[in-house]
Design brief:
This protein has 446 residues and is mainly alpha-helical. The protein has 18 helices and six strands. The strands form three sheets. It has a two-stranded antiparallel sheet with strand order 1-2. It is globular and about 90 Å long. The relative contact order is 0.12.
Amino acid sequence: MASAAEQLAANMNFGAFAKATELKKRIWFTLGALIVYRLGTYIPLPGIDSIVLKDIFERNAGGILGMFDMFAGGALSRMTIFALNIMPYISASIIMQLLTAVSPQLEALKKEGEAGRKKINQYTRYGTVLITALQAYGISVGLEGMTSSAGSAVIDPGAFFRFTTVTTLVGGTMFLMWLGEQVTARGVGNGISLIIFAGIVANLPSALAGTLELGRTGALSTLLIIVLLMMAVGVIFFIIFIERAQRRIIVQYPKRQQGNKMTGGESSHLPLKLNTSGVIPPIFASSILLMPITVMNFSAGQGPEWMTTVAAYLGRGQPLYLAIYIGLIVFFAFFYTAVVFNPTETADNLKKYGGFVPGIRPGKNTAEYLDRVLTRLTVVGAAYLAAVCLLPELLISRFSVPFYFGGTSLLIVVTVTMDTVAQVQSHLIAHQYEGLIKKTKLRGRR
């Protein structure tokens, strides 16, 4: 017999959605915020020659700048106020989470609840401003040295241009950070993930049209384009399958005598996802790897010779780039899993409420068992993330196909879509439960 939640989910229809006023408000707010974000990706920085900049980016579209431009939704190639996108905030969040794991003071602050979380968020914002300012200054210096056959990318280089560029880019990133937080609180889904998602999806039609154009001109064979499209569809189905996969650990509750009744004795399960960390590792890895390389690329010819050499070794598809990228994905898969799931705390909670895993002693033994299972799952999950992100990277570097058909972009799009749909369904279930409770109360009064 289906559970009450499954029955409610099965009965969801357009009429139920139409009655969910709060959900509709959240969806409209989310759409409005994303529209504002997309409009901002077309507002250029002051003092930039857009024609020269377009020519420069077309010559470097297959490099690391093209990859970062994908995450920025085209804002970097147009050099707009959102050119740095939300990546500095992600970098600051990574640093704060790492510091929280090694610093007793920050760890204690995290355990203080809502007050501690607000302080950590405030520190993250300060870090975002600092990182954005450093990266914006590096970009402003790099822009002054960028030239093409049409002239210089900067109309009037100098201290004033650098100041306005840093101020504008810092303001743009901070606005996106605030916008993402508002979407998370008042909209549907995770605001930061949705901003990255919107940037990728917005350029998918042009990427598909560009690929078909390459096929028309003969740059790519028709067979290769068909294989790439089939590969993209296959990767999407593979991502959905893995993201839904989970290991269910049986949890048993003992029977208890309460008066003349025997209660308890039922069994439940503790679901452990195969990929507990979700889409976070690729995003974190891209953020850590792309930002320094982007500054290096902008500063090529302006900085020391070693910077140019490092930028060449960390180019798109280079062995060093791929090795660091995969290493960061694996590291953040284990790190973020450890952040979101604490085996010791889970084991203590089970023991507190009388639950136990059959064949395993409560307490320390249960914690060790959960840790062992979770570690094995994370190994498989990290390998899955590495494969999904690495194999398309090799194809992209080999055949120069658009980044939008790569594993990282597809992983972000599919995962964020699944999470957002799940939140919409949970809101609908909550709304129907509220309706049932109201009807029950009215009948009770009669």
